[in-house]
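Anyone able to model this chain together with alpha-D-glucopyranose?
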Amino acid sequence: MSAMINILFLAAEAEPFVKIGGLADVAGSLPLALRALPFQPAHEDAFDVRLVLPLHRAILAQANTLRPVAEFLVYRRGGNIPVQVFQTSSGGMLVYFIDGAPLSSTPSVYSSDLASDCEKYAFFSLAALELTRHLDWQPDIIHANDWHTALALYGLRSRQSTDPALMHIRTVFTIHNLPYMGGECADVLSAYGLRPLNDAYLPGWAQTQPLPLGLWAADAIVPVSPTYAREILTPNFGCGLDPYLKTRTNCITGILNGLDVNCWNPATDTTLAARFNPDELPVRTINKIALQKALELKEDASVPLLVMIGRIDQQKGLDITFDTLRQMKDRTWQFVVLGSGDPTLENAARNLQADFPDCVRAVIRYDAFLSHLLYGGADIFLMPSRYEPCGLAQMIAMHYGCIPVVHSTGGLEDTVQEGKTGFLFQEAEAGFMMEALERALSIYSAPEKWQRLQQNGMREDFSWHRSARQYADIYKSILSD
Ligand code: GLC
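re: yes, here you go
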């Protein structure tokens, strides 16, 4: 029998409303991909997925079609907090925005003040849970993402045994980044009436942090790649939760994120100087020369152009790239780093440019336009991330014929194939990276072989459809348990 399964999907950020990191790409695409799964009566279930987001100030500034749908109170010691919920529709999907004092008092999506973020996202999570009582639509599943929404699952679990309205709801928790747990927030938990947990398996320090509480409460735990799902069970990547996660292995399934192939398509991308498909790769050179010109690098199609794009953060291993390039100073290459973040690493990027003024450009800013041209014109994409739950940039790079050289970890290991679509190295260290880069450069000097790698990458299927099917299987399995 087929049925309609209702999913309430909670996230702190989502395209096209607000984007800080990769979470927004996933929360913007996965719900729509689930809704689009082909429905065959009698065979398949269909999914009515609805998204819930905080009404961040940045969203309010651009919103003009928000319709009020509910008003209620969320319990907080010392004075219940009024909640206003608004609704809009995006790509045919209903999206709810939650507003209330803890959200309206902060201008940014995340701050460096853990305590205030914890208050804000505890409020958001519990208001989203309470919303289920104020709609003429009931979720079968609440799907939370990362620490920001984890307390909706914990709140649900704590109330489920005494509240018939919530009893039937099952839960999925997607982990995009395990080390960000939300911080110690025992006071906030008790202020919102959440009872302390006492579970012998979860370490004491974890029992007052949102992410571990979400893991504890979830029926299904989904890290964003199969390799990351295995890695978090080890001391190197488990952040102290590996012993607990090992007790939950039956509930853990890694599912690789997809790529929004409508947005990332080199054949239709109007921000490129020249568009191309896998059969007309020489056209890419126009983009490469345009880049070299724009960045005042020597205009020479034969010099390998290496790039890094994204958040400048310890996780991403920029220092490893910088060491590698310094060690390869006698080779011919050009290197561009685009992004912003950690001031120390930003300075290290500027220093590299100062030391290699002819062949390095450190472009320290967020620049979507330039990033497209880099994907579509550069030759090699460097991603020496220390850990990478999934990673999106390597998939975009492959789709744009820019060959990835990556640390063999998490989603990088699951998406890049050595010698077929890119190059991998085993340890996040300059010596290992250098060997992989040397392998890449030696193939780069054989254009026909290089083109084959580019074509292989461009033809990989990274569509969201495949991931959505796997999530659909998880939803169905937890509902039938
Ligand atoms: C986080 C992870 C990244 C992942 C993204 C979306 O930003 O660091 O690896 O791709 O979430 O799941």
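The pocket of alpha-D-glucopyranose is lined by residues 21-23, 26, 176-177, 224, 257, 388-392, 411 (CB under 6 Å).
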